[in-house]
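Handout, section 4.2: multi-component inputs.
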Amino acid sequence: MSGFALSDFALVTGLGAGTQANFAALREGRSALAPCRFDALPLDAYTAEVPELDALPLTGEWAAFDCRNNRLAAFAMAQDGFLDIVAAAKSRYGAARIGVFLGTSTSGILQTETAYCNRAPDGQLPTSFDYGRTHNTYALGHFVRDYLGLHGPAFVVSTACAATSKVFASAARMIAAGLCDAAIVGGADTLCATTLFGFHALGVMAEGPCRPFDAARNGISIGEAAGFALLERAGPQHGSEIIMLLGTGESSDAYHMSSPHPEGAGARRAMELALAEAKLKPSDIGYINLHGTATLAGDAAEDCAISNLFGNRVPCSSSKGFTGHTLGASGVVGAAFCALALRHGFLPGSPHTQNVDPNFRGNYLRTGKVARITRAMSNAFGFGGVNCSLVLGLAT
Amino acid sequence: MMRVYVEGIGLFGPGLDGWAQSVPVLAGATAYNPAPANVPASSLLPGAERRRAPQTVKLALAAGTEAFAASGRNPAATATVFTSSGGDGQTIHDILTALAAPPRELSPTRFHNSVHNAAAGYWSIATGATLASTSLCAHDDSFAAGLLEAMAQVASTGDAVALIAYDVPYPAPLFAVRPVGAVFGVALVLCMQATATSFARIELTLTPGVAKPTNAAPGLEELRQSTPAARCLPLLEVLAKAASKEITLSYFGDMGLRLNVTPCPPI
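Output:
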């Protein structure tokens, strides 16, 4: 792979709306995690909620798409000059030459959860419920593509927590194959009972805020987030400050539906493939944004994979202590945080992590650190044993 | 334009009990009898996994198994693209029902089976496939999206890719708001160059603007319309007839995939 330029990211997480608000929180080491108010869980779970969503219904011609996930997508698209970036791309390439490749794990399933609580006496769902535009996995793609007025190829990738990383790989392939000239990449995942109660059922939900890579880590905290960027072939117009997508690596564990391979074999292969595509050595990477969800097994496997591949040199941290685990959106959040680290020369730390597991060998950053880097990696792994690593870098 | 060769096909749907048995029906040589789909239990899954796997997973594995057997290719060393118009309806219904009333307790197995990429996960575990695997959704146009992604992957890596598309009807009350018509699973093993098992070439062009889709034969057209994964039927008919033909798949009502299909002898 060579020469894919990324626009500025448009981003909303529990830390705030827009990349500036997010970067300020990373800089200050301020976590968005708070006791879960979203739903009544049978344990003291923390979540990172986007509080504005209740007051941002989709109305008018978009009313049929109204659900928490599409609201968050619209809120994110309104940040960071993204609508202007897309408008400029449309005038450059034409609406039919811009693809839309987005990721989500649960799309608007919250809408169906509510509909199931309001079934008629005969069992039917409320007539106002619009499955196709809210709950369906493609509803996010349908909404974003129509909202941006695009007519190029599109789909939603739903590979659990690796979804919004894999869309970068798909989009790069589509552009390389000449099927489009540019693509919207990213996606959204929002809080819902399905994931809150589901992860609780698996016994991997933390009491209190999650503590990635801590010796006393006890599971995940869930967050919600949406992020988008425009991917296109790099050209002289992009200048030397642009963030580039240099490589993507995809692999499968072939091990277990919801537990990682103990030595992180699949994770390591995804990182190796991303490095190979970027034509880089492990020592070229200046920072790794880890998947690091704070489960016992997941963090141990990832530490094993990174220390086997990178040794103990490369600074790395998980952002889950800031944003919670944003599930299908975690890939684009990780990519956006890598872009911020590259742009601002600041590597984020890891709030709530106090004592890094003494069995771990990686160079884990508990606190943020000023450092000029030119290449960064973002990891995302998901149920089904799906792994994806991205390498981002400065053009220079 | 992108080009691939077809090495193997797997097919299970109403009255379509495997690709080999379905060729005469799809070629128009025998009448179509839409009996309920008869999906064989996959020999790939160990007993415990076979019991835990939802119907979408069994369907996808059955189609994939037949396609790989025909291709002679090793599934452990082949990338995959799974595509479906929605998740496993029964699993989602069970979860939503459990969440709607106390005690709101979920089964951990049901939760991991609810992810859209459950079929891909079971496939990779069952076959030992460690290469890239993706799982897509594009509502009614999920087959077209999957074919586009699979062919772009073949073009980008030069390696074979298996496309596995599947749908299973949702139970009530979801069926009323999403009436997927039938159980339908199809798998195509696609590769860059003609091989000893390839028998047809597909050339794909993405066309802008409204595209009128090619219909299936009259007996099968209802299945094509009612079931998103069955949008591939016109392609399967051409492949079954070993004919040269151009067909069109619609893609979101504002694009089309033009497919030029040509039979070619194995090398």
